[in-house]
Structure formats: C-alpha cells, structure tokens
Amino acid sequence: MTRKPIRKTAKTNSSTQSEILPDSTLNGSIELNKERFLERIARIESREDFGAFKAAVSRLKEDLETRNHESNVAIFVRPGEDGAAVKKDVLLSELDQILGARTIERASYYLKRLKQGIGVVSTGKVNDINLLRWKEYDDVVTDSLWVFAKRDASGAHLAWYWGNFVPQIPHQLMLRYTKKGDWVLDPFVGSGTTLIECRRLGRNGIGIEINADTAAKAKELVERESNKHNVVSEVVVGDSRSELARDALAGLGIEEVQLVIMHPPYADIIKFSDAEGDLSGADGADAFLKMFGETVDRVTPLLAKGRYLAVVIGDKYEKGEWIPLGFHCLGEVMKRGYSLKSIIVKNFEETRGKRDQKQLWRYRALVGGFYIFKHEYILLFKKR
Ligand SMILES: C[S@@+](CC[C@H](N)C(=O)[O-])C[C@H]1O[C@@H](n2cnc3c(N)ncnc32)[C@H](O)[C@@H]1O
Predict the structure, then answer these.
(1) Is 7 found in the same domain as 90?
(2) Using alpha carbons only, how large is the chain's radius of gyration in Å?
C-alpha cells in the first residue's frame, strides 16, 4: 500500500459529512400558561372522589389533544403572555399514566410529579436540562455512538470549509455541558461552526484561528447568524499555543470559560496553511502531539474547575500503519490531570468524490489489509 492513497482515504475523516438531529426544544411542543395550567392541576388534586378525579384528568387530556392556543382554553398561552414549552406527547403519556392508576393515592402521586415538572426547574451544575422533565429532551444524545444521517446545513452553516465538523457536534456538547450565558472556547475555530452554534443556543463564544483568511470568513458567517440571545462572538487570529485566548478573554473581562471544544487538524491529513505554528504542518505524529499538548496547556488554566473539555479527532494511516491519533491525543490530555468522562464514536459517510470511488476503495482495502475510516472520536474530559 502506498502512502498517497492511504492519505487520501484518511482525508475523508475530517471532511464535511454527517447528519442531523431534530432541532432543539420546540419540536412537538405546546406553549402553556404555566400559572393557569398549575391552577387547573390544583383543582384536579382537590377532588376526593376517584371517579371525579379521573374525569377531570380526561377533560384536561382532551383539551390538550383537541385544542390549541387559539381556542379559548385557559391552559394555553395567550398573545402577550409568557409561555412554558412542554412536549405534547410526553405530557399526554403522563396523563395516561395517571388515568391508568388503580388508586387515587397512586394517581395523586403521578399528578404531583407532573405538577413539579411543570412548576419547578431543577437543573444540574453544568447545563440547563430540567431533570424533572428529562423525558422531554429526546434531542439530547446520551449514547456513546453518534450516528447522524445528515449534517445540519441550516442558516450560516454553509459547509464550505474542507475539514469542518458537523454543527451537531458543538450543538450536542453545549446542550450537555453549558448553561445559557456560559463561555465556550474553541482554539481551532476554522470556519466558525462552534460560534454559530453558540449564537443559536445563547452561549458566548471565543475562537482562535491561525489562518487569517479563514478567520475573516468565519467572522463574516458568524455575524450573519442572528444574535437573538445577545451573546459575544469573537474570532481571534493567531496561534492557540500562545496566550491569545487568555488575553482576548481578559479584554472582555472574562477569566474562565465553561467549555473548551478542540477540533485540531488530524495531523497532516489536511494541510490547512503554511503558517508557522499550524498543527497540520507538524513534522510527524510526535511533533503534532507536542503541539497539541501545548494547546491543552494554554486552554487548561482558562477552563473552570469541574467543567468539560472535548477533543474531536480522527485517526490516520501512515506508511501502511494505522496511527491512533485519537488515543495519542487522549493520552496527552490525561497527562494534564483531567478525568476521562466518555469516548464517543461518531460515524461519517463518504464525500461525493469518495462515493464515486467506493468500489476502488473497497478493492484497495481488501488488497492492503486495512479498513476504510468511517468514524472519528469525540473525547470528553472533566477538569478536576
Ligand atoms: C479541523 S479544523 C477545525 C474546523 C472547525 N471545527 C470547523 O467546523 O470549521 C482545524 C483548524 O485549526 C487551525 N489551526 C491549526 N493550527 C492552529 C494553531 N496553532 N492555532 C490556531 N488554529 C490552528 C487550522 O487552520 C484549521 O482551520
């Protein structure tokens, strides 16, 4: 097997593949007027007769199934009022559970739980997921295998940059590991995918990019994305092994970030630029890992304790051998005192070019005794 075709195979690793998850919270949701909905629940709770209790729950269920905010039913939000978005199918299944209860005590217990879920917000330390309504977050992935069918190409996500990642990666990471208003640092920001997602989800974002032309385009695209949460989005040109991120954050009055997302070059699989300090220009895997480690050294003091660092990385072939860049990078981060939380394997499909050559690559794999790259890693670490 010659080095050239192997490198070509590896290139598919970091090119623009993948798929979509259902968009965040409003999918399948209804907007309730929280106060009036809770009043209605309280009226049901006050029934002592089990038959009347169940009849009231049935009427509530019917209203939810057959009416909407345009009907004059008080539980729905009216124009000008604040609404609470609730997943309709989850709410209906909870009402079914109440209706299926055999005793009024059990039914009251389920109703009380429903009331708490709507009335109380109970989130963990690192995200805004309301754990009392955890069933509604079906768009938040919890498995270690991420199989996306299609990349999110909406809005400013134009997928023009060879070597970008699918927006679903920063999207998922931010849902799990940040709260609204938190700061996210991406020291290899490329085309700005992370910062575009930051704007959508209401997180402040700072990205470092060594290539000035790429950074300029990223900045333009990030600014094209609407800023409805009024967050800060900064693209800084330079080498992330320097103190640039620290200085830029200090200039904004910020000392710590709550999430770091690192998507470095996969060594030399794609040569991003000739800039001095570009990790894709490192002379061999050891030099690449040294530079990667130096970046981890720079970002670590900026990450708040107990918060997360994610590394998105794929492996490569060199001289007929599989080089496990992902595991090597994992080792570099672990040396710096992080605890490993997850190793996620994410699929990717071929680019159009590779698809056309599918049979040829299959033949090459059979002859060369290797497997064609179809996955990359998202390594998740927590700062102790
Ligand atoms: C794999 S790409 C990141 C792509 C990005 N996630 C996106 O979606 O567009 C890696 C990026 O790191 C940049 N880079 C390489 N070495 C760097 C360094 N020392 N400091 C900052 N950026 C660097 C490259 O120019 C390239 O744009």
Answers:
(1) no
(2) 25
Number of domains forming the structure of the chain? 2
Q: Which residues pair with 30 in a beta bridge?
A: 86
Residue 288: CB within 6 Å of ligand 1?
Answer: no
| 197 and 273 housed in the same domain | yes
Strand arrangement, sheet containing 303-313 = 145-146, 338-347, 375-383, 303-313, 257-262, 183-186, 204-209, 233-237
User: pLDDT truncated to tens, each residue of the chain (384 aa)?
Assistant: 222 222 222 232 233 222 223 333 456 888 999 999 999 999 999 999 999 999 999 999 999 999 877 787 899 988 888 788 899 999 999 999 999 999 999 999 999 999 998 888 899 999 999 999 898 898 999 999 999 988 888 888 888 898 999 999 999 999 999 999 999 999 999 999 999 999 999 999 999 999 999 999 999 999 999 999 999 999 999 999 999 999 999 999 999 999 999 999 999 999 999 999 999 999 999 999 999 999 999 999 999 999 999 999 999 989 889 999 999 999 999 999 899 999 999 998 765 556 678 888 899 899 999 999 999 999 999 999
193 lines ligand 1 (CB under 6 A): yes
Query: Is the C-alpha dihedral spanning 168, 173, 176, 180 positive or negative?
Result: negative
| Same-domain check for residues 131 and 145 | no
Q: Are residues 151 and 291 in the same domain?
A: yes
Q: What is the CATH number of the domain that holds 291?
A: 3.40.50.150
Q: How far is the CA of 292 from the centre of ligand 1 (A)?
A: 11
In short, whether 163's Cβ falls inside 6 Å of ligand 1 is: yes
| Domain containing residue 345 | 3-24+140-383
